[in-house]
Amino acid sequence: MATRRVIYLDHAATTPVHPDVLRAMQPYFTEEFGNPGALYALGQRARDAVDGARRDVARLLGSAPSEIIFTSGGSESINLALRGVLFSHMAKTRRGGAANGRPPHVITSAIEHHAVGHTCRQLRDLFGVELSEVGVDGSGWVDPDAVRAAIRPNTVLISVMAANNEVGTIQPIAEIGAIAGERGILFHSDAVQAAPYMDIDVRALKVDLLSLGAHKFYGPKGIGVLYVRDGIAFEPTQTGGGQEHQRRAGTENVPSIVGLAHALSLARTQREANCRQMLPLRDRLIASVPAVVPGARLTGHPTLRLPHNASFVIAGIEAGPLLLALDLAGIAASSGSACTSAAMEPSHVLMAMGVARAEAAGALRLTLGPENSADEIDCVLEVLPETVQRLRAI
Amino acid sequence: MNAKSVAKSPAQTRVVVAMSGGVDSSTTAALLVEQGYEVIGIMMRLWAGTGPDGSAYNRCCSPEAVADARSVCVRLGIPFHLLNFEASFKKNVVDFFLDGYARGVTPNPCLECNRHVKFDALLQQAVALGADRLATGHYARVTAAADGRYQLLKGTDPLKDQSYALCMLTQSQLARAMFPLGGYTKQQVRAMARERHILVAEKSDSQELCFVVKDYREFVQEHRPDAFVPGPILDTAGRRMGTHRGLPAYTIGQRKGLQLAIGEPLYVVGMDASQNALIVGRDLDVWQTRMRVDAINWIAASAPTAAKVKIRYKSAEAPATVEVVDAARVEVTFAERQRALTPGQAAVFYDGDVCLGGGIITRVGEPA
Fold first, then answer.
1. What is the dihedral of CA A319, A323, A324, A325, to 10 degrees?
2. Which region holds residue A244: left if phi is over 0, alpha if psi is between -120 and 50, else beta?
3. Distance CA A367, CA A362 (A)
4. A324 vs B128: CB contact, 8 Å cut-off?
5. Which residues of A carry out catalysis?
6. Which of B40, B79, B83 has its CB closest to that of A321?
7. For chain A, what is the radius of gyration of the CA atoms?
8. Nearest CB to B40: which of A328, A343, A393?
């Protein structure tokens, strides 16, 4: 494809690998290619690299190395968290363990990423797991009291995302974690979108399980982390050679593990500077888009929102043609999550927030990165109104 | 030339190519890129139905077709986008198709797709995206005459000419249309595709309706069961001969499947939706010389007094005289009797290579 300068405003979909991260990864593709399971020096050095990465990630998350599992990404982490806990519970009850006669009950929110939502629904449909999806208010915020009200005697697991990928709303994770803790219910949080720009300390957040994916914070695709608090009963889903302390089989993806740890560390050290850079630009978009595009309004919480997320619904147009027109103008943006393209179903997140179907069809998500400039924002604020006008004229 | 007749160079002309993932639209895009146009590939998501075996999508909008179209565009270095036109397609093509069968006629939905979806809904999107023209892989040609009127011509490959399906296009639609393949044969197009290493050069052509996975009768049965009800088979005098299994299962001129044994072959000669009756007759009754054509779109400035007429996509043209009833209706009288004139099918009028326009056959035989 002919490469043309692109204004990239879809950082919530993915981010480029930071040059330092790539450099850190490189040796593990070539000279240091060893299998960490091997006994000879080459293997041992690879093992050491993985161990070092694990220690670094644990430290950054406020956890112990034994509590960190490397996975193939955010979706696998989420799947492993949910299935790991639920299958363990179901196996125990079948063997005559803690049984109160009812299947396990899971509470999630109505705005989770499909990795949570579809997995929970599959578990409900195939295994009879009871499922409650707690609603959100108009700003996409999960009320901890609503979570508390949904708890049943057989509730085993609560899963609420740390920040929403579509509208950026930051959720009250610590409060929900406290509620879960009171009742001895396990609490998982999908922190995939939060990781680049929020301080993730698993003790402070009071989570028992937490999922991350590196490609959202300038690491490579195909690698993620699942934090599982020590002592939680947990069944692996990918079984085999016993890697990751018997919890996730498969030869370790050494370069990507090293890359993930490096990227997470960079995210921590550069967070303040990055936020300082992006916040004014984001706020400018938030203030200006509704002003220059009649019929556009902000979605998500006005203040409890990720520092890089400016999402809107624009009346009278459809997202597909809008994104195409923006693409032709050299602007990369999305509508809702990247996973649902060309499908005509409106975003379940916007629906849960009470946005009308017709309005939700015109959803536009702009998510910044530290490399976006004021000039680029100027350009977007020029292109967007005239594009919307042309599309409305159809 | 753009639609405003201002001379624009190819490099200044943005063309949207309607991509299907097939060899024709792919080669169309390749040719336009070579000619220096600013090309954008757009694939239309038209129909996401489920086949009887539970398989999702139809042949044409399948994920494989999308991947093929995308791959062609990436290799050509042009943007590729998939846009959703399901609502327009359902209303203008699928519902039109089902309504036709419910009324006891045999509709041709492809003409409606070209008229309302490709060269209307998609064209409007293309224009809103700054495109001057919309190109498709149809085997047809459009030219501008000296008086500024556009003419639709047959493709030069007589075996592949697709002007029939484009007969409903208006002057303003033709003004923005481009058919780069119209001057080539299918063999030449495949050869061009191979030369350019276009992935889909050897892909076979889709033959049937794009939104029907298996059989159109099953489709009608599934989506409009009220149109598929057994009823009486009557002869031309109105006598009951037997029972049919639902009008959509039959076509005019059909002999097989009637399950009537009266000593001479019987053929379907008509359908009466008001009585849900299938009318059968002898072979002689299947041949007619007169028909009424309604809802005509004239591409030519006015109706001709005589023309060569195609009565279905795959029929040969036949000479006929044309008598104007009003601006959109004519009586057609063929020089020689024609077999199985079918209400609901399009009658398309030709003068040599020029497609004068087309309409829908509504009455067959002598007027009542």
1. 100
2. left
3. 16
4. no
5. 339
6. B83
7. 22
8. A328
Contact A171, A349 (CB under 8 A): no
CA separation for the pair B100, B109 (Å, rounded) = 9
Residue A169 CA, distance from chain mean position: 12
Neighbours of B49 (CB within 10 A): 19
Task: Report whether A45 contacts A244 (CB < 8 A).
Answer: no
- Distance, CA of A369 to CA of A278 (rounded, Å): 7
d(CA A328, CA A90): 51
Question: Best of A6, A324, A387, A390 to disrupt the B interface by mutation (most B CBs within 10 Å)?
Answer: A324
- Token look-up 């708890």 returns A151
A18, A263 Cβ separation under 8 angstroms: yes
Nearest-angstrom CA–CA distance, B23 and B191: 10
Question: What tokens were used for A314?
Answer: 């624009």
Structure tokens given for B77: 């270095």
Residue B169 backbone dihedrals phi, psi, to 5 degrees: -75, 140
Of chain A residues 306-325, which have a CB less than 8 A from chain B? 318, 320-321, 324-325
CA distance A265 to B48: 45
Rounded Cα distance, B41 and B43, in Å = 7
Residues 6+ apart with CB under 8 A from B330: B292, B293, B296, B303, B322, B323, B324, B359
When pLDDT is cut at 50, 70 and 90, the band that residue A151 belongs to is very high
A212-249: burial string, b at 16+ Cβ within 10 Å, e else: bbbbbbbbbebbbbbbbbeeeebbbebeeeebbeebbe
**CA B45, B46, B50, B51 torsion: positive or negative?**
negative
pLDDT tens string A198-241: 989 999 999 999 999 999 999 999 999 999 999 999 999 999 99
Average pLDDT of the segment spanning A326-353 = 82
- In this structure, the dihedral spanned by the alpha carbons of residues A224, A229, A231 and A234, taken in order and rounded to 10 degrees, is -40
Length of chain B: 368
For A328, the closest of B45, B82, B129 (CB atoms) is B129
Q: What is the pLDDT of residue B1?
A: 44
Tokens at A278, concatenated: 């992006």
Amino acid of residue A77: S
Contact A234, A85 (CB under 8 A): yes
Tokens at residue A170, please?
Answer: 């930051």
The one catalytic residue in B60, B73, B167, B210 is B210
Most confident of A20-29, B141-150, B237-246: A20-29
Please state the length of chain A: 394
The burial class, CB within 10 Å (0-12 / 13-18 / 19+), for A174 is middle
A74-94 and A114-127 helices, crossing angle to 10°: 20
Which residues does residue B38 pair with via DSSP β-bridges, in sequence order?
B14
- Distance in angstroms (rounded) separating the CA atoms of residues A191 and A171: 10
| Residue written as token pair 């050509």 | B76
Q: Which residues of B touch A393 (CB under 8 A)?
A: 128
Percent above pLDDT 70 for chain B: 95
Report field, pTM of the whole predicted structure over 0.90 = no
> What pLDDT, on a 0 to 100 scale, did the predictor assign at position B146?
85
